[in-house]
Amino acid sequence: MDPVLSVPRAKAMEESTVDCGKLAFLPTISFTVGGKEFQVSAIDVYYILKVGEGATAECISGFIPMDIPPPCVNQGKRIKT
């Protein structure tokens, strides 16, 4: 089981939910684009979508995992796949 996401690791390639009560414990995430750093936090609901209110609320991760293989390289030259 993933320690933050409430799904088994095998299911992590699907939409993931987070315990809405743990939003304050999720990290601030930084992205650097064009040399400028952008920070997003879960508590400000930038990468977690909260649907509903109270005990029926669901918190859904805005991140979608992608399994992208590394590029193929042969003697320093990229190989078309």
Automatic annotation (TrEMBL):
<feature type="domain" description="Peptidase A1">
    <location>
        <begin position="12"/>
        <end position="65"/>
    </location>
</feature>
<dbReference type="InterPro" id="IPR033121">
    <property type="entry name" value="PEPTIDASE_A1"/>
</dbReference>
<dbReference type="Pfam" id="PF00026">
    <property type="entry name" value="Asp"/>
</dbReference>
<protein>
    <recommendedName>
        <fullName>Peptidase A1 domain-containing protein</fullName>
    </recommendedName>
</protein>
<dbReference type="InterPro" id="IPR021109">
    <property type="entry name" value="Peptidase_aspartic_dom_sf"/>
</dbReference>
